[in-house]
Amino acid sequence: MSTHAPVLPPRFDALDPEVLEDPYPTYARLRAAAPMCRGLAGAWVLPRYAEVASLLRDPRLGSEFPREYHQLSVGAGAAGEFLSSIILYRDPPAHTRLRALLGGAFRAQLARRLEARIATLVDGLLDPVLERGELEVIGDLALPLPVMVVCELMGLPPADHELIRPHALALGRAFAALVPPDA
Questions:
Q1: CA distances from 75 to 9, 66, 81, 142 (A)
Q2: Terminal Cα-to-Cα distance of the chain (whole angstroms)
Q3: Residue 148 burial by CB count (10 A; 0-12/13-18/19+): exposed, middle or buried?
Q4: pTM above 0.70, yes or no
């Protein structure tokens, strides 16, 4: 009978301040330690390319979560149903069919048609930055620009963009891999 405790693989906490400051030493340590590490809340982390690439090619794995997962995450009702129907979380054949339906709306032609308008939006966002003399990339550009572009694609007037932004940010949190406990 063995009295040795089992050796557990290392744990990875993406919200650890050390990881947030500089994740690369932690990544190197995890890659050297094991092909699989413990994550938070029963999750497993694969730090090596070979294992990740192998899993991505494995037809037994998919993106679709069971309906019960969404019900446990956000409760029964519209939010869980919404998350269950998003293309990102669907496996073929549903994913393939939905992607084909939407594909026409997001072709390169649309991007070329929007290029000048997006450049104008970026210029408008950067004007105050130039006056201030400093840029906060996320707050000044990366957060407002996609909301503005989607609002324009949906035909929402510019006056409503600021009303939409907090809702878009809240919706975006539903897709975050890691949500800090205070959020």
A1: 33, 13, 10, 30
A2: 47
A3: buried
A4: no
